[in-house]
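Objective 1b. Sequence-to-structure analysis of Glycosyltransferase family 9 protein.
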Amino acid sequence: MAGSQLLRRFRRGVALAGYNYKVWFRRHRRQLFLRWRDGDIADQMADYRRSIEARDWSAALPKALALGSIAKSRGEVHLLDELSKALMRMGAYGPAAELKIARRHIVEGRVDGEWLGQDISGQVLLVDLMETEKQGLATAIHHASSVGRALARAARLIVLVEHRLVPLFQRTFPAADVRAVGPGTEAAYGEAQLFAGVQHLTAVFETDETTIREHFVPLKPDPARVADLRARYRKDGRPLVGVAWGSSNPGKDLPPLAAWRGLLGRQDLQFVSLQYGRIEPDLKILTDGDPARILHDVLVDQLVDMDLFAAQVAAMDAVVTISNTGAHLAGALGIPSVFILGDGFKRSWPVEGDRTPYYPSAVLVSKRERPWAAVMEDAQNHMGSLISAT
């Protein structure tokens, strides 16, 4: 199939999987429910969700795997979507990706040129890390290490990313043809013989924790910019700790600003804001009247220059942040980091343990229904250990 035809079919599938699909599901959810109720799948789903609510992951995982097989055989798109996300959070990365691919095939049909791991040693592969609007910078960063593995398989590799990530990916994978998603996207698809999205990379390369961890490749920031920022920030020799505390997503469970004061009270550390947006009101609360406690570099704006922001993050000795793009970037750069995570099964991080194979240098501090004061104390202790180890 020609590249332009492939791209048109791909876009139609994205449209069906996006807003239009949501409208369709709202209109037909009762019929779907009746279909599930007629068989044993409703009982199995209820049992599975009870395990999720109880946070009994050892029981929930095999139930999710079994339900995923049923959803594939019945073509239940909504269940495939829910279960693929659940399996990803429970560490079943390969099966989760297979369900995502199955969902895509049901929604849009199979597309010629889809790479599923076959030999491509003499072919041009296009890896699209921005295949839907919902997959933003964090998704591309999260799966960046697999770009290097795909590069080793293909005769030539084209990588599509958001324009702000192009310099970072070019520097990390100089043998790849890294391009920005936009007006040239159709031409890029036309040059390729095969394409892969994030779910394809996961199905081929990210099947288990050990494999993901062993093939981690840190992103490479601009060394000159890193050196310049580090020299400007670390004038008195104190370790630099980057912090970010807020999100534009109202659904996130976040510690209140006052809960950060204990951590930010460390006088032996120089804190640097990695927070985006207009943060001056927050800084007044966080610093408790001592503005020098957090360095705010107004010349760095991650919404404009992500490569400069990456250099700022890389200049840190450690990072403490909530779940956001900066967290993914710190982890992908290999910076010792503490990620503060709220409760809820909707979050994208592992549900068990304090590590993620995608970012070996990061420690996850989950709320787990504790008071935020206890969570922040835990984060501070981990931060101290990370700094001592550097």
